[in-house]
Amino acid sequence: MAHGYRNLQQWNQWLSQQFLGKKSLETEASQFAQVLSRHFGKHAVLIGVPNQYDLLNATKIPCHSLVTPLTFKDKKPGYIEGDFHEIPLLTGSMDLVMLPHTLEFVDNPRQLLSEACRIIKPEGLIVISGFNPYSVWGARKLFGNGKNKHNMPWGANFIQSAKVKHWLQLSDFVMEEYKSILFTPPINRPKLYKKLHFLEKVGSVCFPIFGGVYILIARAKVVPLTPIRLKWKQQLTGIRISRTISGHIA
Predict the structure, then answer these.
(1) What is the domain extent for residue 119?
(2) Half-sphere exposure in the Cβ direction for 50 (13 Å, CA)
(3) For residues 126 and 74, is the Cβ–Cβ distance under 8 A?
(4) What CATH number has the domain bearing residue 37?
(5) What are phi and psi of 48, to 5 degrees?
(6) Can you tell me whether residue 35 is helix, strand or coil?
(7) How far apart are CA 50 and CA 71, in angstroms?
(8) pLDDT in tens, 75-103
(9) 39 in a structural domain
């Protein structure tokens, strides 16, 4: 876990210190606000790193929590320090769970997703964002030199959205929405990035599935309670019914 912990620290720093990190966080916050505008409830939790905490402001749900293994000085309300292998929250206690790129920084993403699904109420939502391996961002990771592969976000494990969808279906979740964003190439130079920003509109129309980041929204199924008819199979032994006295059991 030490290696993963270091990656999470670097990821947390990249989101606040690098232009590209700030831009991606800003774009995702805007998209989350759009997809969550009609969702209500009481409890929302984000499983990730401290610099992602403000993503919770995208929802109108009042009670916010952050589950993270990282420690930081300015602890905000609802901060929970915990390991991603076992989320320290009650089963079926959350109306909304957010996993912004968190699956990409753990050794067993399916186990983490199962834990996230466990704590969601029936009809609750899960929102997942991830880097798309089939995009310019994915190509940058694939063909980058050795040094780049160890930097953020290229050190993350880019997971196909189809695989995440399959895991959600196995956990009895129904897909509600899929969005693809960040069509601008991952350039860490503000002026050049701004010049190429027109590709956001072009990409969303011409290449809608090749954005650098995908966002998945799924809802927990409500399992109907089917009445079970009990069949009495136990034999009545040791009971003799008299033939001489009607209705008398000896």
Answers:
(1) 2-220
(2) 16
(3) no
(4) 3.40.50.150
(5) 180, -135
(6) helix
(7) 8
(8) 778 999 988 989 999 999 999 999 999 99
(9) yes
